[in-house]
Amino acid sequence: MRGYGGRALTRPSVVRTGECPGATNRPPVRRLSSAVVKVWIPHRAGHALLGELPPGVTVELMEDPARLPSPPADVRFWVPPFLAKPGATALLAELPDLEVVQLLSAGADAWVSRIPDGVTLCDARGVHDSATAEWAAAAILSQLRGFGPLARAQARREWAYDEVAPTDELAGKRVLIVGAGSIGAALQARLAPFEVTFTLVARTARPAEGVHGVDELPSLLPEADVVVLLVPLTEQTRGLVDEKFLAAMPDGALLVNAARGPVARTSALVAELTSGRLRAALDVTDPEPLPADHPLWELPNVLLTPHVAGSVRGLLPRAYRLVGEQVRRFAAGEPLVNRVVDGY
């Protein structure tokens, strides 16, 4: 069956329908008409994870923009796929009644500049805290305790004690967390038992909370053994990690990027890491995916993972609990949480 714009229409996977007003959170809060509030979600498993929804809400499975479940004109609430493919935002132009875009990712950088006027963008802050913090903690321990060289020795069937030992350790390290949000707090909680000291940095200083402003980084970096990047990608954070940033880090320090690849200038990273002066653990790169011939692959002081920090089995249940709560708020005319404002 052909539908809007010549796209194929599949039979909608509908889990709840009815008649009741919905609403948006954009001030002033206004009541929607009594028409059905149509929601598109990208995962079949999401149906069972949303929880009870009010009458008037219809949920349809929309996995592939090339095969829409129904005409898009009356979609009011859209949940794009997690780590949506490039071009996913093009569908926005075909959703004239759209009220809310609810992301499953903590970062909204791919969407901020493309959201039409009058549409509320929400991210999934809180959903990825534990998973991303776990990845960062594991990456730090892996690099400090020499798991990379040990794994390579294992692949060679070599007992590499003399090659690797003694290793570095996490105890006593000074950890600088750039991005003092919920993921930063989760990482701090996980690293605290390792007898480390913390310095937290946010966009602006919060003296009452002991949080420094990003403008203080030049004086903070020389005192950090481990620097963890957890900031969103905005015009202010793009290229934050440049030659001066890296040069300010002490010899042997570890840079951990669980934010976005473009937060760091790749050319500066390659130059500094090739020298062997610093170490890095990178879950994100620029470009991404990293080409097979990229020099970062070959560096023994670099741990690379393919943007997997938040990709854990518990992701969908947590994410769809948030989506369900947002849909209920929307239908009730209540303010939504996690609204993205100025890229944050």
Automatic annotation (TrEMBL):
Keyword Lipid metabolism set for record: no
Keywords associated with the record: NAD, Oxidoreductase
Record region (Disordered): 1-27
Keyword Membrane annotated: no
Segments passing through the bilayer: none
A molecular-function term among this protein's GO annotations: oxidoreductase activity
Residue span, D-isomer specific 2-hydroxyacid dehydrogenase NAD-binding domain: 138-309
Protein name: Phosphoglycerate dehydrogenase
Source organism per UniProt: Micromonospora rhizosphaerae
Lineage of producing organism: Bacteria, Bacillati, Actinomycetota, Actinomycetes, Micromonosporales
